[in-house]
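Example 3.2
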Amino acid sequence: MSLNRYLEALTNAQSLEELWDMHCRKMASYGFDRLLYGFTRYRSGTSLGDPEDFVILTNHPTSYAESFISEGFYFHGPMVRWALDNEGACSWSVIGDMIATGTMSASEMRVIQFNKAHQVIAGYTIGFKSISPRAKGGIALTARAEMPQDQVDAVWERHGRDILVMNNVAHLKILTLPYTSPGRGLTRRQREALGWVGDGKTTQDIAVLMGLTPATVEKHLRLAREALNVETTAQAVLKAALQNQMFVLDA
């Protein structure tokens, strides 16, 4: 598939599942058989926010992906730190440079050892451009276990610009699609109630518009707050909007 045809298919994807399957297969054609995409809108100071609020997409084995997030390896990964501080693409050859010059911390070395145990050895990392200091995304492209870094760099020399463009477009498309953390999806009624709040309607107004009692409207809003793990309805409206859960067309 040509680059133009792939980008057309990518931008027409209707779900994260469709997009991610397509993108994983395309990257595998270049030798990158394991991908880990992450995005947060809740970065502040030294915190990246609650991991449960991250957009995480991966085709790594569960044994790797769950430990990488739940055990906090992501926070100390040298290439994660690079993606947070930079835009564009970076070869993992810099890891060898850091080790050789003694500039890698003990916590970073633990991440490298963890990665080696899971054959996450060679690849490239891409940091995406963001206009907000609170938002940042990146993707780690892990090469097949048998590919050394110099071979990966040779692939990048030939196709790197196309790979970078495809990942940039995939990232921008992901930002337009609905995403929820497991167990935090909203029901149709909850989305509708939050939508009316976002339009400035009162509980009484919403009750009339939805044909419900005010008490039932309050129940939907309370359940929406719980699903989104926030304290106020205003926070729920914002979070649902950021996750593209508002004004979603039902199948």
